[in-house]
């Protein structure tokens, strides 16, 4: 596993990102406060170093910024994993956040897939549109080239529910990134 730096500029967004799977500073500034909060939780609980500076067409809405940060983080994650040899491969976590409960299961094999089950009790937390959470996660999984299943089991407070999702993702990643002896965790001999 390695450190990765990425830069992406489109007509809608500009993103500069540093990812270190072995740890390091966490400094997030996307212009979308709730996303910053979720990414800080993700990096902290996964044990990653993560620095992101992003700007986007927030005068339209946060969609492009949130999705593009997911794309760039996914690309960086895929690059950092390299050939993905020596990894436990699978990770799962069920995390409570007070009254909320979320479950994440993932497979780091190079088979991108995404599924999200569950609903938030309202559409927004502050000015953040909660439908962007599945958009971010889908962009992360598809560009990170891994399988990601997310189940938002229940909850009453939408903020707690979102935190439970991101913390469950962090702990599932921690487990999948553990070192495993004996080469790729596949009967094919290749992930």
Automatic annotation (TrEMBL):
UniProt-listed InterPro entries: IGPD_sf (IPR038494), ImidazoleglycerolP_deHydtase (IPR000807), ImidazoleglycerP_deHydtase_CS (IPR020565), Ribosomal_Su5_D2-typ_SF (IPR020568)
Assigned EC number: 4.2.1.19
Catalytic activity: D-erythro-1-(imidazol-4-yl)glycerol 3-phosphate = 3-(imidazol-4-yl)-2-oxopropyl phosphate + H2O
UniProt record, GO biological process: L-histidine biosynthetic process
Main subcellular location: cytoplasm
Entries under Gene3D superfamilies matching the protein: Imidazole glycerol phosphate dehydratase, domain 1
Group of enzyme by EC: lyase
Organism domain of life: Bacteria
Pfam families assigned: IGPD
Compartmental location: Cytoplasm
Keywords, sorted A to Z: Amino-acid biosynthesis, Cytoplasm, Histidine biosynthesis, Lyase
GO cellular component: cytoplasm
Functional pathway: Amino-acid biosynthesis; L-histidine biosynthesis; L-histidine from 5-phospho-alpha-D-ribose 1-diphosphate: step 6/9
UniProt-listed PANTHER family: IMIDAZOLEGLYCEROL-PHOSPHATE DEHYDRATASE (PTHR23133:SF2), IMIDAZOLEGLYCEROL-PHOSPHATE DEHYDRATASE HIS7 (PTHR23133)
HAMAP family from the UniProt entry: HisB (MF_00076)
Family statement drawn from the similarity comment of this UniProt entry: Belongs to the imidazoleglycerol-phosphate dehydratase family.
Protein name, per record: Imidazoleglycerol-phosphate dehydratase
């Amino acid at each position: 596993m390695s450190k990765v730096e990425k830069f992406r500029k489109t007509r809608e967004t500009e993103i500069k990102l540093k990812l270190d799977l072995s740890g390091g500073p966490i400094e997030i500034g996307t212009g979308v406060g709730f996303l910053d909060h979720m990414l800080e939780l993700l990096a902290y609980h996964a044990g990653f170093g993560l620095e992101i500076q992003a700007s986007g067409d927030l005068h339209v809405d946060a969609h492009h910024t949130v999705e593009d940060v997911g794309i760039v983080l996914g690309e960086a994650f895929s690059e950092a994993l390299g050939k993905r040899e020596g990894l436990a491969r699978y990770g799962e976590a069920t995390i409570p956040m007070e009254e909320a409960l979320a479950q994440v299961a993932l497979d780091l094999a190079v088979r991108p897939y995404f599924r999200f089950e569950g609903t938030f009790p309202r559409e927004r937390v502050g000015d953040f549109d909660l439908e962007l959470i599945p958009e971010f996660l889908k962009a992360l999984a598809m560009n990170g080239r891994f399988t990601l299943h997310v189940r938002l089991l229940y909850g009453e407070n939408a903020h707690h529910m979102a935190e439970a999702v991101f913390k469950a993702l962090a702990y599932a990643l921690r487990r999948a990134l553990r070192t495993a002896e004996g080469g790729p965790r596949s009967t094919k001999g290749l992930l």
